[in-house]
Amino acid sequence: MKRTITAFLLCALTMVGIRHAAAEEIVMDAGFGPTIDMPYGKAHVYWAKILEEQSKGTMKINVFPSDQLGSTKDTIDQVVTGQSVITSTDVAPFADLGVKDLQILMGPYLFKDWDDVERVYQSKWFKEQEKLLEKKNIKVLATNWRYGDRNTLTRTLVTHPADVKGQKIRVVQAETFIKSWQALGASPTPMPLGDVYPALQNGTIDGLENPLTTLYGGRYQEIAKFLLMDAHNKTINIVVCAKSFFDSLTPMQQTLLMKTAHEAGVYQNKLAAEKEKELLDVFAKSGVTITAANYDEWKDAAKSFYTTMSKNWTPGLYEKVQTIIKSKE
Q1: In angstroms, how far is CA 250 from the centroid of its own chain?
Q2: pTM for this predicted structure
Q3: Is 26 within 8 Å of 60 (Cβ atoms)?
Q4: Residue 52 neighbours by CB distance under 10 Å
Q5: In which domain, by residue range, is 317 found?
Q6: Average pLDDT, the chain
């Protein structure tokens, strides 16, 4: 009888141990817009791999490309409600949650080069914005994922700002993108990336804007044959999760999650830089007409964006950002 009880207790303790071990395994879903075969998708697969390795199998990421978890807005909503979801996008949608000063970072023709961009994202000012996001239950994990220069792909030739007047351009579902294209006289049309191809086919939209890797990854050049190299924005995608979820992790797990997010960003940037060098030739060979935009002409055409949007921001914000850039902070 004693042996039976002992065996029962050992079995029970073993089962408790198994349940405890299972409970310690952290599984997260990472959702994003680009396709899995592009640098952005490959970097997420790499992130899942190194996180699982460095955590010795106790932390895992399920990768969901092409808006499989929902649109950018959907995945941000999932983060805000505390789900174990990771998402990454530019700061515009987060500005729409109430951290309005972030909007300026998506303003057209704000940055000349990537050094300017990184200087601002590493500044004390941006750290203050991160603290404000935490009050919205959003924890920033990494700020080094370069999404790239955003260029414009259309079904008809666009060379000058007047050429986009009235055109329906697909944009991210965020006020900053909408106002930027309205400043240029276009008709911005928010929609998930996954819906863009058929929308181009049936004429619901006339074009879209995105980095070359994303434009190519979606095969949009099969329909839209005119590429304007306007680089209207140099985009950093911030990687985020729910702060409540992040706070539930142990300090070691938190460190691993942020460390590997940064490492995956470095990997993504390397892949993207290599890929972008190839893509202009690929676009040209597929029959796409490539036009270099006159930077000053387009910057001047979009300047009303800053006048319109500044009423939403802290007074003097534009000047502050310019000071950070020029002071080499």
Answers
A1: 26
A2: 0.81
A3: yes
A4: 15
A5: 2-327
A6: 91
